[in-house]
Amino acid sequence: MTSTARPGGPDPLDLLAVEELLTEEERMVQQTVRRFTADRIRPHLADWFEQGVFPARELAPELGRLGLLGMHLEGYGCAGAGAVAYGAACLELEAADSGLRSFVSVQGSLAMRAIHAFGSEEQKQRWLPGMAAGELIGCFGLTEPDFGSDPGNMRTTARRKGTDWVLSGAKMWITNGSIADVAVVWAQTEDGVRGFLVPRGAAGFTATDVHGKLSLRASVTSELHFDEVLLPGDAVLPGVSGLRGPLSCLNEARYGILWGTVGAARDCYQAALEYAKTRIQFGRPIAAFQLTQEKLVEMALELEKAHLTAWRIGRLKEAGRARAAHISFGKLNNVRAALEIARSARTVLGANGITTAYPVLRHANNLESVLTYEGTSEIHTLVLGEAITGESAYR
């Protein structure tokens, strides 16, 4: 990745040498994922994005062999990696494409994490080893067609029927939904919000893919429907009730995002820098013009600030000191920075920037989804506002 402008000078792609803050093991993880995406993913991304497909079934076992699925969880075939190592992996995954990082995040930080944190031992043994290996795929059903930022008013319900449960309702914008072997679904019950494990093929459970997307095209996005789905009593996650369960999983996914968006930003900046050094106008490379240099400098500044933010939050997380406000700080800042970098990079590339020959507009389109999923900018602003003032402004 290193691209030195002058011999002995700083790396233009990492001006503050943030990667030197990683341990040897963390750098090894990052380099392994970087090689994997270069060899296995990047050659196909333009076609996947244009066709609106993502070969999840094919890729999942390969991601499993690399130890990337549930890599920050302990036991059950999971790697038990530290928070920064997981973040560095997310950075490289999203440097390729947000859809790839989303698949890994949903599998590990949402579906697997819910089972790992709140499931029974039997549920963990049944699902987690296969999910860690990429043999089984999971999804996470919280958002509904009418309720995104306000999950407490979800309409999906589960009622008791003897020792069984009957699940009814719908979930929307569910990554991996139509290909999942198990869906972790959150529903209102007489005891509050509970999580349920709904296996693929359960009678009354259907998943329909969302088409016509202009963002996250190399990703499977679905709507889930539950028409009086009969589930056994042991389908419920016994370890949690209330919104604390799904929201804690969302914080895990948001943590991956605040690292992943650094990767998307770096990829856009790198594309713009390389293009500017080779694109000749008025007899000179456009990198020699002041306005282009200003754009590149602003990109480099925001990239390194976002990278340092991710690293610091990762170390806080490893020390057990990361709070929801820290995660909101990282997601709000880093997605915003990545979007601005993508948009500025597109202007450096001119008309070439709108084609799939370059990754910039693909990243920009993807980041429009990343901006709103796992908590909108408005929600994260209010989380931080409450942390700063002590006053809740949600209602």
TrEMBL record:
The Acyl-CoA oxidase/dehydrogenase middle domain, residue ranges: 139-229
The entry's keywords: FAD, Flavoprotein, Oxidoreductase, Transit peptide
Acyl-CoA dehydrogenase/oxidase N-terminal domain location: 23-135
CC cofactor: FAD
Domain Acyl-CoA dehydrogenase/oxidase C-terminal: 242-388
Database matches in InterPro entries: Acyl-CoA_Oxase/DH_mid-dom, Acyl-CoA_Oxase/DH_mid-dom_sf, AcylCo_DH-like_C, AcylCo_DH/oxidase_C, AcylCoA_DH/ox_N, AcylCoA_DH/ox_N_sf, AcylCoA_DH/oxidase_NM_dom_sf, Glutaryl-CoA_DH_mitochondrial
Keyword hit for Flavoprotein: yes
Domain of life: Bacteria
GO molecular function: fatty-acyl-CoA binding; flavin adenine dinucleotide binding; glutaryl-CoA dehydrogenase activity
Entry annotated with the keyword Hydrolase: no
Cleavable signal peptide: none
Pfam families linked: Acyl-CoA_dh_1, Acyl-CoA_dh_M, Acyl-CoA_dh_N
Gene Ontology biological-process annotations: fatty acid beta-oxidation using acyl-CoA dehydrogenase; fatty-acyl-CoA biosynthetic process
SUPFAM superfamilies: Acyl-CoA dehydrogenase C-terminal domain-like, Acyl-CoA dehydrogenase NM domain-like
Protein family membership: Belongs to the acyl-CoA dehydrogenase family.
Protein name: Acyl-CoA dehydrogenase
